Amino acid sequence: MIEQVEEFLQKSFSHFLIDQDKKNSNIPHFYIKPEGIVPIIQALKEHKTLAFQFLNDLTAVDWLGTNISTRFEVLYLLKSPKNQHFQIQLRVPVEEGDSVPSITSIFKGANWPEREVYDLFGIEFLNHPYMERILLPDNFVGYPLRKDYPLEGPGQDYLIENLLEIHTKEDITEGI
To answer: What Å distances lie between residue 127 and 10, 19, 48, 66, CA to CA?
Structure first.
């Protein structure tokens, strides 16, 4: 199966593939340029034989402090239920401040994982229908899963102060 996927990607999308050393992994993976992620995932999903119709996971890795040249990778784990749940991983290298096109137009279920990656790593997804924090408060400072995020945090007192201020301004009798 991996040979079929590799042949399909080389034949149809070689201009989007990045020739990079493979990591030691039991999941076949391909490095993709950010601008190629939407057409490749769309084609893999609609392909009659390959049929990668299930987005199993979407996450990111921060490579700061390693010998890997790019700062982040956005990872897409796709499964093909038609082919005994064969799975592949697509890796998109991203530098700090760069963004990746959203795949919510292909997989609606990518909505929350993309927001989670944004919330915890600060990687934005272009054309996402609602690119805002999902787990942390709107006034949270920084991205806590980045390796350069301080272990003690930037200090969370401001969060409590803001919450108290917000609630003291509310009129709880309103609507009664």
So the answer is: 27, 27, 27, 31
pLDDT at 141: 86
- 161: tokens are 């102060």
The DSSP-derived string for 56-92 is EEEEEEE-TTSS-SSSEEEEEEEEEGGGTTEEEEEEE
In DSSP terms, which residues pair with 57 in a beta bridge?
77
Q: 3-state DSSP call for residue 6?
A: helix
Kindly indicate the confidence band of residue 68, based on its pLDDT and cuts at 50, 70 and 90. Answer: confident
Q: Are 49 and 106 in contact (CB under 8 A)?
A: no
The identity of residue 32, as a single letter, is: I
pTM of the shown model: 0.84
Going from the C-alpha of 23 to that of each of 28, 29, 89, the distances in angstroms are: 9, 8, 11
Strand segments (E) across the chain: 29-31, 54-62, 72-80, 86-94, 99-101, 124-126
